[in-house]
Design a protein that fits this description.
The chain is mainly alpha-helical. Helices cover 75% and strands 3% of the residues. The chain has a two-stranded antiparallel ribbon. The mean pLDDT is 86.
């Protein structure tokens, strides 16, 4: 079997093993899930090492006929846009498993978890729009059960709200893709084939199709004002699932939007100022709402709306620096938000409160937990030396090159982001110890391992971002060169 197929099907193989696990082996469900997820990460690292960064072509390609009558293929491949997200997803899944040790009803939890990993990887590896759509919808099923069965007090409403929002957006995405498919003479759903067809459509048709795709991808991203599902889902989801929800699943929408822009360049020309406006409003709106929150998880959830706005700014700029910032911000936000959700989840597990006013003097009771939380909060505000600084700086510079003084609006969002991050640092570390902090246990070995990996990645990619930048550099240049006639 080819490398990408091995990588893709490993999590599902783990889920099937768990499904048929004898009852007396159920206590080993976590170890089995960790084994399969760890193997998936090793395969991803193998692909990353073998990836030729100087080639803009899709690599490790696999293609088999899937539905010949429809023109659909089981087509897989990676390029400089998808590989960083595959690596991020596999890494976060392993960290989230380490953080979720001791989950109730472990077999069902880990089956759903590995099924979710399978769906996420399928989205980033697919090179056929029909296959992409199948994996896109497939992620809804395990995520619904993970929130509905293992979430907080309002988990049922949060799970239903998430599914309805996402399915509503998916309807628009499906209609848009069918419009391109209907215009094709060869009736193929391969991404390259549909891209060629879509680029030949009139500008008006391209804009309509792009709006449909923007609705579908914008809900998952999420862009303002399609973010309504996000806060409740984040707050009620189990902490390990919040890591994946913010770290990897939101990136599915951004990744899909990148593919949509490549397919519909004339529509991007028309929509550029509107995309920038939506992004700038989202940056400020998300930051202000995060500032108003007293619930730590809700604060991080709203901050995700703000930080993902920088992805949209870089994408709307359509220049090398901006697009580099967009691609890098997807990885940066995944690492930083994943670390924050993990740490806040560990605090909640120990104190049973997420209210900021209930915390204080964390450094005296749990110094390692306090140190990592402060580092993650500083990284979320884009502190130099963290990966968030490099990513947001690229996105800001790219946006300034194209949109000029309008980027001052984004700067205001950055200031507000710094304000609520520093407020949290002060509330957690300074002040008198509160009753909830008495006898607080510091990080356990598995928790320490997971948090250390995330924080190390945030600092390493902040101090030495060349490795991450190199993965996408050639693909970004090729992407913009293909769009160049529309942006002259």
């Amino acid at each position: 079997m080819k490398t990408l197929s091995c990588l893709l099907w490993t999590p599902l193989a783990g889920a099937l093993v768990l499904a048929f696990l004898p009852r007396h082996w159920h206590r080993h469900a976590c170890s089995i899930a960790l084994g399969f997820s760890g193997l998936c990460l090793l395969l991803t690292l193998f692909v990353t090492i073998r990836f030729e960064t100087n080639s803009p072509d899709v690599q490790f390609s696999e293609m088999l006929p899937w539905n010949p009558g429809m023109g659909s293929f089981y087509a897989l491949g990676v390029d400089g846009f998808s590989l960083p997200l595959v690596l991020l997803s596999a890494f976060l899944c392993l960290v989230a498993l380490l953080a979720g040790l001791g989950s109730p009803r472990p077999r069902g939890y880990y089956i759903a978890f590995l099924s979710l990993e399978f769906g996420m990887l399928g989205v980033f590896l697919s090179r056929d729009w029909a296959l992409f759509y199948v994996f896109w919808e497939l992620t809804l099923i395990p995520l619904f059960f993970l929130i509905d069965q293992w979430g907080g007090k309002r988990r049922h409403g949060a799970a239903l709200n998430f599914v309805l929002y996402t399915m509503g957006g998916s309807v628009f995405m499906l209609i848009a893709l069918l419009m391109v498919y209907a215009a094709s003479a060869e009736h193929s759903t391969l991404m390259d084939s549909m891209q060629g067809v879509a680029r030949g459509l009139p500008r008006g048709s391209q804009v309509l199709i792009f709006l449909g795709l923007l609705m579908g991808f914008g809900v998952k991203m999420p862009v303002f004002p399609l973010h309504g599902w996000l806060p409740l889902a984040h707050v009620e989801a189990p902490s390990p699932i919040s890591i994946l929800l913010s770290g990897a699943l939101l990136k599915m929408g951004a990744y899909g939007l990148i593919r949509a822009c490549a397919m519909l360049p004339e529509a991007v020309v028309v929509m550029q100022p509107w995309l920038a406006a939506i992004a700038l409003v989202g940056i400020v709106y998300g930051a202000l709402l995060a500032w108003r929150q007293s619930d730590l998880k809700a604060m991080i959830a709203y901050s995700s709306v703000s930080h993902m706005g920088f992805v949209l700014v870089g994408l709307a700029a359509m220049n090398p620096v901006g697009l580099t910032g967009a691609v890098m911000q997807m990885t940066a936000h995944g690492l930083v938000a994943g670390a924050l959700f993990l740490l806040i989840g560990l605090l909640y597990e120990r104190t049973h409160t997420r209210e900021l006013a209930d915390y204080g003097a964390l450094g005296r009771t749990a110094p390692r937990l306090a140190a990592f939380t402060v580092l993650a909060l500083l990284a979320s505000m884009g502190l130099p030396g963290s990966v968030g600084f490099v990513a947001e700086l690229h996105a800001m510079i790219g946006g300034f090159q194209h949109f000029g003084a309008w980027m001052l609006v984004a700067s205001f969002g950055v200031l507000v982001g710094g304000a609520y991050a520093l407020r949290c640092v002060a509330a957690l570390v300074a002040g008198p110890a509160k009753p909830a902090m008495s006898g607080l246990e510091d990080l356990r070995p598995t928790e320490f391992a997971g948090v250390s990996c995330l924080v190390a990645a945030i600092v390493w990619l902040g101090l030495a971002p060349a490795a991450l930048l190199e993965l996408s550099r050639v693909s970004i240049g090729h992407y913009l060169a293909a769009l160049q006639p529309e942006f002259l």
